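Handoff note, outgoing to incoming analyst
You'll be picking up this chain. Sequence as last confirmed:
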Amino acid sequence: MKGKRGLSPVIAVLLLILITVAAVTLVATFLIPFVKDTLNDSTECVDYKSYFTFEENFEDGDKVIQYNCYDSEGNHGASIKAGSIDAEKEKLVDGFDLVFIKEGSSEKARATSDPLGVSDVTMLAGGAIEIPSSGELRTYVYSSENRNQFDKVEVHAVLKSGRVCEASDSIKFIQCDSTEVTLG
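Most recent structure output, in case you need it:
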């Protein structure tokens, strides 16, 4: 056994320290930012889970009017109410997406608070797009280019970061009663 030598304990300790420092550097450089970004992305929409909802009925004197409906021209009305939320979080909302669904197909329409942005919906009463603030209610009209009559619609909050949150509400459409509601 003469002539065979092992690593000295000092060199072995130095190698272990070097491997540990390299592992910590890799974790700090790649793993921590990855986990932080993933958690931030997955929690960004938590406060907006039920922010936008559909208001089903309005009372006008002795009549109940339903604006979540479609007409024969392919116009779809949707009445959207914003829930209560902290003012700072409300500033992060840019608008919403409406996803119109019919068996096997869907169309997406965006409403944004940006006056220079393109909105795919219009206000029922006309004028500039207004995104509802906490507690407010607005009614919008979407006109399908193909004159589709969709069965259902979902609303998704859109944040200024560009993130589109999961649907916060959905509602089934009914045929509009032409004597009460004009969407076009």
